Amino acid sequence: MPLIAPSLLSADFLRIGEECGLLNASQADWFHLDIMDGRFVPNLSFGLPVVEAIRRATTKVCDVHLMILEPEKYAEAFARAGANNLTVHLEACVHLHRNLQQIRGLGMKAGVAINPHTPVSLLSDVLGDLDIVCLMSVNPGFGGQAFIPKTLDRIRQLRALIDEGGHEAKIEIDGGVTLDNAASIVEAGADILVAGNTVFRSADPTATIAQLKAIGTSR
Ligand code: DX5
Ligand code: ZN
Questions:
Q1: Which entry of 29, 34, 131, 191 is annotated as an active-site residue?
Q2: CB 13 within 8 A of CB 24
């Protein structure tokens, strides 16, 4: 069964406490928290105080996705804020291996996200040094974009690299995940589904999360 990670980027921030309560009572596995700096991506989102507040509102895994330059400057602060997983972008890291060591050294799971144009083979020499690969299935920066179909091939390639190397890394898919495409994404080899609009714009987010979660059972 896939892990389900609703993205709070699409939540109603005026009712963020209630949104957290809804996720707590649902089958969601992780809270996916998108941090944007207006430099690595052409948008801003929220920062440390919001992550700290959400941390207090849940015992579920806080999966923090940093879409920022120089992520090494903020890793310690996100650890203090309560992040369980910290994902940095390969395209934003000059010293990726060092950044992964830093994240694990701070007691968090280390993730690497790659943009749709970045070959998955660029990760082959660090697959043993990370816990999560976040394959972006849209260009990062905004919720509600359409899934890029080529991602399915990329999942299969990455699955083969991980399995052939005997690695433990989990594959997370971020962007444009819907009830229509989730089965093919899981079938291709993904372990974790991020979903923003599909969850929070649905009439019944709890039921939508349950439907996403059940996808693995029909595999
Ligand atoms: C995009 C973010 C995603 C986004 C997903 O830059 O990293 O996590 O919130 O939103 P949906 O599921 O609406 O594409
Ligand atoms: Zn994200």
A1: 34
A2: no
